[in-house]
Fold this sequence. Notes:
heterodimer; A: alpha+beta; Ubiquitin-like (UB roll); five-stranded mixed sheet; two-stranded antiparallel sheet; 9 strands; 32% strand; globular; B: alpha/beta; Rossmann fold; six-stranded mixed sheet; 15 helices
Amino acid sequence: MAVKIKIPTPLQRLTKGQEEVTSEPGTLIEIINSLDKQYPGLGERISESGKIRRFVNIYINEEDMRFLSAENTQVKDGDEVSIVPAIAGGF
Amino acid sequence: MSKKKKFIRGLKCRECGREYSIDPVYVCEFCFGPLEVVYNYDEIGKVLTKETILSRPRNLWRYKELLPLEKEPEGAYFTGYTPLMKADNLAEILGVKELYIKDDTVTHPTLSFKDRVVAVALAKAKEFGFETVSCASTGNLAHSVSAQGARAGFERFIFIPASLEHSKIVASLVYEPNLIAVDGNYDEVNRLCSEVANKYRWAFVNINIRPFYAEGSKTQGYEIVEQLGWRAPDNVVVPCASGSLMTKIWKSFREMKEIGLIDQVNTKVFAAQATGCSPIVTAIKRGIDVIKPVKPDTIAKSLAIGNPADGFYATQVIEETKGFGEDVSDREIVNAIKLLARTEGVFAETAGGVTLASTIKLINGGHIKKDSLTVMCITGNGLKTQEALVGHTVEPHYIKPNLAAFEEVLKKIKQDT
């Protein structure tokens, strides 16, 4: 078991076309930093100075990380992380 | 280069400034910032004069140089150009000098301002060669894409939260789109759509067509300025869900100054939200630009976006214009819907109640000066959200079909008033 991370289309170029990658458990920001080692450039796209970028939404098992502990949320074996660009709607 | 093309320079990331060509893309590949259409205002200013605008038919295409199309809109609706009503009855009650209603309850063809953005989005989707259009919607957008997409011959996939009011669902179904009712709130529907949009090559009006779609909102602002006799109002109160409409109305005023249609813009922009979903107003009141998402709980479902994509920019507009924001309870929303109907004969949907109730608070709080000119953006028709008023309206007078019965009730009515 590991953590599954779903990669949105704009970032799949960095993951060699993979829609889903895996990582060891840890805090969200640790996972992103470790992904950056496997897929150089990925971390910079999603985060800046240890913070998730304003227009990136990250969901852990369907819950917005901002309702959890944001960058410090503990992600366990078997959890699923989705990275979704912010999109508009409504007024 | 087509004549039209010289008016549009391309797309640009609002965060990092990277530039992109005109394509159905919506986020910066580098930083995920939203992309925005960039125009060549010098060229537009040479062509788009007051005389030119006034010589054109009264619909939103009279400002077409400021819209992101490279060709003439093909098969599009001639929507827009809704009334700007002077609301003297309401102004008297609220104790303000000049109050106007920008009445998008009568937008063609589906009675909300979404007809503006969808007209632009579908014309652009045609230009790009898409055959299927799609959207995530709280109701109004679903109606507009369903209707306008039907006429334009698109296959339509419409995603809505299953909890929407029944009347709002019927008002989409009548146009026979593929209506996908998702067991989740709008933010969850939106998230699903972003995954669908990654996989299928469809024109999602609020995803990959978003930079173009959102520009359609500007037409409400252009019309306000034109209908006020070529001047920007002192105050404009705008309902906020994602924050997009408010940022675009502000952009429209600045553009009209930029191309020389008006000399000055001193407008204060105000945000209106329901207390049960007020992430933007919460940030405004705290004086911060960090938007904390919320889980919406309000009768104003068309504004129930807990994770507003343009929330950050909305806070910037408030700061730049020295405006403010207010949020109102469901009770205040219902009372405001009734007040607007009773005083001005305009039946607004719940979002309109949010706008008026917030305006009242802004006036009472001294944020809107009583001797200034205020425009309220009323964005959708009350016939769409009648459920919100059940149990809150006056009762009919039930009588037998004879004159005596009528006169008996008439006597009672006269006594009561």
